[in-house]
Amino acid sequence: MVKQISLFLENKEGRLARVCRILGDAGVNIRALSIADTSNFGVLRLIVNQPDTAYQILKQNGFVADITEVIAVEVPDQPGGLAGTLEILEKKSINVEYMYAFLGTTSQDALVILRVENIAGAVEALEAANVKVLQGEEVYSL
Amino acid sequence: MIWNQHYECMPREQLKDLQLERLRKTLERVYHNVPFYRQKLQEAGFEPGDLQSLDDLQKLPFTAKQDLRDNYPFGMFAVPMSEIVRVHASSGTTGKPTVVGYTRSDINTWAELMARTLTCGGTTKNSVIQVAYGYGLFTGGLGVHYGAERIGASVIPISGGNTQRQIMLMEDFGTTVLACTPSYAIYLAEAMEEMGVDKKRLKLQYGVFGAEPWSERMRQEIEKRLNIKAIDIYGLSEVIGPGVASECQEQKGLHIFEDHFLPEVIDPVTEKPLPFGEKGELVFTSLTKEGIPIIRYRTRDITTLKAEVCPCGRTHVRMEKIMGRTDDMLIIRGVNVFPSQIESVLLEIGDTEPHYLLVVDRKGSLDELEVQVEVSQAMFSDKVKGLETLEKMIHHRIESLLGISAKVKLVEPHSIPRSEGKAKRVIDKRSL
Known about the structure:
The complex is a heterodimer. By secondary structure, chain A is α+β, with helices and mostly antiparallel strands. Chain A folds into 2 domains: 2-68, 2-Layer Sandwich (VC0802-like), CATH 3.30.2130.10; 69-140, VC0802-like. Chain A has 5 helices and 7 strands. Chain B has helices at 5-8, 12-33, 35-43, 65-70, 104-120, 139-151, 163-173, 182-195, 216-226, 339-349, 384-402; strands at 84-90, 98-103, 128-131, 154-156, 177-180, 206-209, 229-236, 241-247, 254-256, 261-266, 280-286, 297-303, 305-306, 318-319, 324-325, 330-332, 335-337, 356-363, 366-374, 406-411, 426-428. In chain B, helix 5 (104-120) packs across helix 6, helix 8 (182-195) runs parallel beside helix 9 (216-226) and helix 10 packs across helix 11 (384-402). Chain B has 2 domains: 1-325, ANL, N-terminal domain (Rossmann fold, 3-Layer(aba) Sandwich), CATH 3.40.50.12780; 329-428, GMP Synthetase, Chain A, domain 3, CATH 3.30.300.30. Chain B starts with a helix and ends with a strand. The A-B interface holds A 4, 6, 8-10, 15, 36-38, 40-41, 43, 45, 62-66, 68, 97-98, 115 and B 375-377, 379-384, 387-388, 409-415.
């Protein structure tokens, strides 16, 4: 599985920049990110090359952060590619909590990060349908 | 165990007669010996001889902390300094401290009341009691010390601080009763866990904790982490120090030692006495104090009194755990709001030490309350829905508790300013 760092951010100027600076100074490279926001706050989710280091460094800097397991899957980079992948999960009644796209790619395929409650079930369903699910190390070193 | 069966279990009617007799003597004493009270009583048109029943208490003037400051240092003393054997002083966060003086008889009374308090808290002559309250001008250390000696317990007068040494002696001397502030008890538990102390080797059974307000949740945490029974004790130097009230083993309210102190609960705004069960400001009149007797002293502590008979056998009324301070009280849309009430909501949500700030503003003619809450690790979720649910839950619970709607805003950890000692809980932007 892939470790995702999530953290709480207030909707205030400079907060996102500060997180990125802290991680940059620690030599942590951001591979993918998404922000979910409300009018008051946001939740920043990150895939980085060194998740454990990033978590420690953020905690030391006083952020509330968490490590969550997510799934990274290859999606054909063509119309309907993502739809096909999501339909596999839908058939198994697995709800996607949220998802976002990855910056880099492994081949000609696109990469997406999926957050589901039932990780094992999702991976099983995806692999049975011949969808490539990436391991953490594969993703961190991209 | 009850230290003084005769007085602590005295039938109410008999107790009232005793209180009236003692109140009369106190009024005589302050009228003749304290110019401040003579003037106050004359202004109120009340001579000591006018006292007919305890109901007349509400005709007497109040005493505020400022009155003690104005008469600094010894102006409120009712005896010449030759009769004073000890002074204590409360830390003045602003300006001069408030000073209190004890005669030999006062010290004797205090030891008696602390013997009652510690007996309430499970102390016997076989106990080994570690007194980790500060010794010195603060009343905590010496107050507990004299009471424990009166009982005949073995006293370790270690005073506050030096946590590693506290823990070493606790293990080596077989301490059975710990006396300190509740926050220090938590700190000790944390330090023990960090040091890898095997708590099963400790002989601790009881803790007597006071000198600061603490929640029921904090009690549960202390009891669990130190594996003891935690007893709440109450007092303030202006009244005598610790030994004004104490929980018994029932842990359902603190018995006020009514043969020495006459309690009232008043509305802090109208100053009218409130019936039992209603929440208001606690007021004390001393009945036996010689050095510095006080009439209707406003503690600024918020609580309720309850008259129901306690299963322990003591007849003295009980007060609830302190719910807040009148200094902190906000009136929002006509509703009295205490930061401690907001804190209780946050404690229920599962935080042991919530950091929050109440910001009150007035938009047009309407007061608005914003509750800023620092997100803790326990509250956080990578899903926005989880955090929004949390906001709604806090909002809903505040509304059902206070009857007013507050805007809840989650903020980053450490974003609410901390100050040494007391945390700032309120920003009132209204210009009234």
